[in-house]
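Tokens for chain A. Residues wanted.
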């Protein structure tokens, strides 16, 4: 099996992992930065955590819908 076939086989899983990691980390980082800017610690970091969790649930539900449509 060639390396290209192996990479293309795992690409959807790698992109899903990256999407979840960015979906959680980005709102938290933005919340941290805004907390430092406005001096409202820890409220915007907590809001970023909440938005990150909601984002992960949306990603999971979208994946579930996609997998159910394929079968």
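Reply:
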């Amino acid at each position: 099996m060639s390396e290209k076939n192996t990479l293309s086989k795992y690409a959807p899983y790698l992109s899903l992992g990256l999407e979840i990691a960015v979906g959680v980390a980005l709102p938290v980082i933005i919340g941290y930065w805004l907390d430092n800017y406005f001096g409202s610690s820890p409220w915007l970091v907590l809001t970023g955590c909440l938005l990150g969790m909601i984002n992960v649930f949306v990603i999971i539900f979208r994946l579930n819908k996609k997998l159910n449509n394929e079968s």
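Residues 11-70 form one domain. Residues 3-38 form the longest helix (36 residues).
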